[in-house]
């Protein structure tokens, strides 16, 4: 992990779990796998606090443990995962997606599971039902069965998955015999099991949860009425102990990627073609593996049958649209055969590469102007060009072209490639070619994005700290107002309390709130770019 | 490798490669060399594109801020125990002491964690009625106390004897405690002063002025 990634992870851990966990987490990220004593000694933290922090990190999946390097007898080693901590940045997007797909119930389920790291199904259902009941009007409450159905829908579409079973530490130590190193240690020496390796990954436990959500009330009567039911609920253990569910980030990422492709097609071509691509992607959801370069071939007949009913286009029009999509230079859709009216695939890898390229071009355009962007695009397309050729092809006067090229070169967006004519690499007899490599440039930009988000978070913390006194004062006054209103005070008292904040202070508060909202919103939007670049880089790795 | 021998800073114009190839013409004005670090907030020629505003962006913003706020109240937000700077106070025994280092405030599944991480689960969590958290541990004991109260109300008549016997036992215990306290007080008094003066000789002036002053002829010293 790079320095920027570690810095960003540290800030995210600090905001969500406190400074102690941040210290432990960054130490693990920088230092690799370590055991408990080493961590405690090197971070100068009391052992109990270290234990607590590790429990928190493991609960949220940010840290994994395994037996030590020297074999099963050595102390347990802990390894933090930078990638997993960076996902925290994307939590609002996951929750919002769950809301758009499965409504408020789905949103709350995903939010609860993200907050707790992993939860059993019964716990989740109870908590979510209580929260929904709390927001409903008086007298109504949420049925458990509705929450259970939303939960099962999330599991069926793979958005939630079971946590992988934990390798047994104790038995591994006793079962292996030092005299026979050939005996396989019970999964302690192999890589920790992933969620997908469990065949029951997406199987719901056979638990019947009957009941309704509970509203938290201050009066005792209603509690006593439901006392009987409450005792009944808790006395029966719900039968799914030990089966924990976590959010399946990869499935969400797949969904985001599909959304990105569909919106790109919609903006490049038109709504109907995006609907066609959406249909194709939906049909190949289950048949496409995570790292596939393109979807399974679909025949035009199948696509025609699966189109949504409100998009009634005739068969020849569909064929025309498909050929348009295939001919488009963005290469979203490709033709892989002629049977069944034409076999079509969605080129996932190519689409991601094109989306990343568009991002890079847009970044150059916004930072350096449209003429520099023209040079950049030229170099992307033509690979290697000499100084003179750049000037000619881009139709920019020599002096300005030089200036722009050097600016891009100093920012490392463009590289210089030397091609010697003679074995002694004499400078006067060497070609100097400008080139742009998409993958390293994408990595560079990704690191810039991480740095950006870290800077945004730091600035937000700074602003909050600067105005801490004012924020505390306003919080206290709000609390006073709330208590006064609850106890039924007169309007004069309320206005008197409100006037305790002076007008310039109010303005300052308003400006502070505006800044913090802007910084937060910016973090969310930078994360979208981060997602695109990460997906592109990941798709190239698995080649 | 290229040009190791020549061009070792013998003047401005001497560079290790031919500058014509890269495109700088002869005698052209190069930008002046920079002798200090770039300014912290350099002026930008191209302003950034404004943020995307809209319902979706605002909803995600609200989600994010709410999530952050919620995480601060959950037990996963580890706060180190505040070290007492002052003298030990008597009220510490009865006040809520806040997070302490050697207990964990939530109940993880210990089967999924290595044995060495096991810490005592904070007992106070199980006794308190939950105010804002919906952790699974909380509702049970509070319901049990309520159910217990009902049972006591229903069974009060039949259990009267047992209750009175309990009270008697309680009284006996209290008497024992008082005796112990009395002994302790006595011991404290003796050892506290460590002087030769007997405490009963000390007159702290509370009785002064308590006698009735009917006879005002005599002066009072």
TrEMBL record, chain A:
GO molecular function ontology, one term from the record: single-stranded DNA binding
Segment Disordered: which positions?
170-236
Ranges for the RNA polymerase III subunit RPC82-related helix-turn-helix domain?
Answer: 8-66
- What segments bear the compositional bias annotation Low complexity? 170-199
- Cell compartments where the protein resides: Nucleus
Q: Give the signal peptide range.
A: none
**Domain RNA polymerase III Rpc82 C -terminal span(s) in chain numbering:** 150-355
Q: Which residues form the DNA-directed RNA polymerase III subunit RPC3 winged-helix domain?
A: 360-436
Q: Does the keyword Transcription apply?
A: yes
Summarize the protein's role. DNA-dependent RNA polymerase catalyzes the transcription of DNA into RNA using the four ribonucleoside triphosphates as substrates. Specific core component of RNA polymerase III which synthesizes small RNAs, such as 5S rRNA and tRNAs.
What family does the entry list? Belongs to the eukaryotic RPC3/POLR3C RNA polymerase subunit family.
Q: How does it assemble?
A: Component of the RNA polymerase III (Pol III) complex consisting of 17 subunits.
Name the chain's protein.
Answer: DNA-directed RNA polymerase III subunit RPC3
UniProtKB/TrEMBL annotation, chain B:
Q: Where is the composition biased (Acidic residues)?
A: 159-169, 178-196, 204-221
Q: Report which superkingdom the organism of origin falls in.
A: Eukaryota
Q: Where is this region: Disordered?
A: 130-221
Q: Which Pfam families match?
A: RNA_pol_3_Rpc31
- Give the InterPro entries listed for this entry: RNA_pol_III_Rpc31
Q: Which UniProt keywords apply?
A: Nucleus
Please note every region of biased composition (Basic and acidic residues).
145-158
Where would you say this protein principally sits, based on its record? nucleus
A Gene Ontology CC term for this entry? RNA polymerase III complex
GO BP: transcription by RNA polymerase III
Subcellular location per the Swiss-Prot or TrEMBL entry = Nucleus
Q: Which family does it belong to?
A: Belongs to the eukaryotic RPC7 RNA polymerase subunit family.
Protein known as? DNA-directed RNA polymerase III subunit RPC7-like
- Annotated organism of origin: Salvelinus namaycush
Starting at the broadest rank, the lineage of the source organism is: Eukaryota, Metazoa, Chordata, Craniata, Vertebrata
Which gene is transcribed and translated to give this protein? LOC120031161
């Amino acid at each position: 992990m790079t320095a920027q990634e570690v810095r960003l992870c540290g800030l995210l851990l600090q905001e969500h779990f406190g400074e102690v966990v941040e210290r432990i987490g960054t130490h693990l990220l920088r230092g690799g796998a370590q055991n408990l004593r080493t961590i405690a000694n090197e971070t100068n933290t009391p052992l109990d606090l270290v234990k607590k922090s590790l429990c928190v990190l493991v609960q949220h999946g940010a840290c994994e443990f395994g037996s030590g390097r020297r074999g099963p007898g050595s102390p347990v080693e802990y390894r933090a995962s930078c990638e997993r901590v960076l996902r925290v940045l994307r939590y609002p997007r996951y929750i919002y997606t769950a809301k758009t797909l499965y409504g408020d119930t789905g949103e709350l389920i995903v939010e609860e599971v993200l907050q707790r790291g992993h939860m059993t199904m019964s716990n989740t259902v109870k908590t979510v039902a209580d929260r929904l009941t709390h927001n409903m009007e008086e007298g109504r409450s949420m049925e458990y069965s509705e929450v259970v159905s939303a939960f099962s829908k999330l599991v069926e579409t793979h958005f939630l998955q079971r946590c992988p079973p934990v390798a047994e530490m104790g038995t591994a130590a006793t079962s292996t015999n030092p005299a026979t190193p050939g005996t396989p240690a019970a999964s302690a020496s192999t890589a920790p099991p992933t969620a997908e390796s469990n065949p029951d990954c997406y199987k719901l436990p056979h638990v019947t949860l009957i009941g309704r959500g509970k509203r938290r009330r201050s009066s005792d009567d209603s509690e006593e009425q439901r006392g009987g039911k409450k005792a009944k609920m808790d006395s029966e253990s719900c039968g799914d102990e030990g089966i924990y569910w976590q959010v399946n980030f990869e499935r969400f990422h797949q969904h985001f990627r599909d959304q990105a492709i569909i919106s790109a097609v919609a903006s490049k071509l038109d709504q109907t073609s995006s609907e066609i691509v959406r249909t194709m992607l939906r049909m190949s959801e289950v048949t496409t593996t995570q790292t596939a370069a393109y979807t399974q071939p679909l025949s035009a007949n199948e696509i025609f049958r699966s189109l949504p009913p409100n998009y009634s286009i005739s068969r020849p029009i569909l064929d025309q649209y498909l050929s348009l999509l295939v001919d488009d230079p963005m290469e979203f859709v490709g033709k892989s055969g002629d049977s069944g009216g034409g076999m079509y695939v969605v080129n996932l890898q190519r689409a991601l590469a094109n989306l990343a390229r568009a991002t890079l071009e847009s970044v150059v355009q916004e930072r350096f102007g449209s003429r520099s962007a023209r040079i950049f695009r030229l170099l992307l397309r033509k690979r290697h060009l000499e100084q003179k050729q750049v000037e000619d092809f881009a139709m920019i006067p020599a002096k300005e072209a030089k200036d722009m090229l050097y600016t891009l070169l100093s920012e490392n967006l463009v590289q210089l490639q030397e091609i010697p004519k003679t074995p002694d690499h004499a400078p006067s007899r060497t070609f100097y070619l400008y080139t742009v490599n998409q993958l390293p440039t994408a990595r560079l930009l990704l690191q810039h994005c991480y740095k950006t988000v870290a800077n945004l978070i730091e600035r937000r913390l700074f602003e909050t700290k600067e105005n801490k006194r004012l924020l505390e004062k306003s919080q206290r006054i709000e609390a006073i107002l709330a208590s006064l209103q609850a106890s039924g005070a007169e309007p004069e008292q309320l206005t008197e309390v409100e006037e305790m904040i002076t007008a310039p202070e109010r303005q300052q508060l308003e400006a502070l709130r505006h800044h913090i909202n802007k910084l937060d919103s910016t973090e969310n939007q930078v994360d979208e770019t981060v997602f695109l670049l990460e997906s592109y880089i990941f798709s190239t790795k698995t080649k | 490798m290229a040009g190791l021998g020549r061009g070792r800073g013998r003047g401005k114009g001497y560079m290790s490669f031919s500058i014509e190839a890269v495109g700088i013409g002869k005698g052209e004005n190069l930008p002046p060399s920079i002798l200090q670090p770039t300014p912290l907030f350099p002026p930008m020629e191209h302003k950034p594109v404004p943020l995307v505003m809209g319902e979706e962006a605002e909803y995600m913003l609200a989600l994010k801020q709410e999530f952050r706020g919620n995480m601060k109240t959950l037990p996963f937000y580890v706060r180190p125990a505040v070290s007492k700077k002052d003298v030990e106070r008597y009220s510490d025994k009865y006040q809520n002491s806040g997070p302490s280092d050697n207990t964990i405030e939530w109940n993880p599944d210990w089967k999924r964690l290595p044995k060495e991480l096991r810490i005592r689960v904070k007992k106070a969590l199980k006794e308190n009625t939950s105010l804002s958290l919906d952790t699974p541990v909380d509702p049970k004991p509070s319901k049990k106390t309520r159910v217990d109260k009902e049972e006591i109300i229903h069974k009060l008549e039949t259990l009267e004897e047992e209750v009175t016997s309990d009270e008697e036992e309680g009284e006996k215990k209290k008497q024992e405690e008082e005796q112990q306290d009395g002994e302790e007080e006595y011991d404290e008094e003796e050892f506290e002063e460590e002087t030769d003066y007997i405490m009963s000789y000390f007159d702290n002036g509370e009785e002064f002025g308590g006698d009735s002053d009917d006879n005002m002829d005599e002066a009072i010293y």
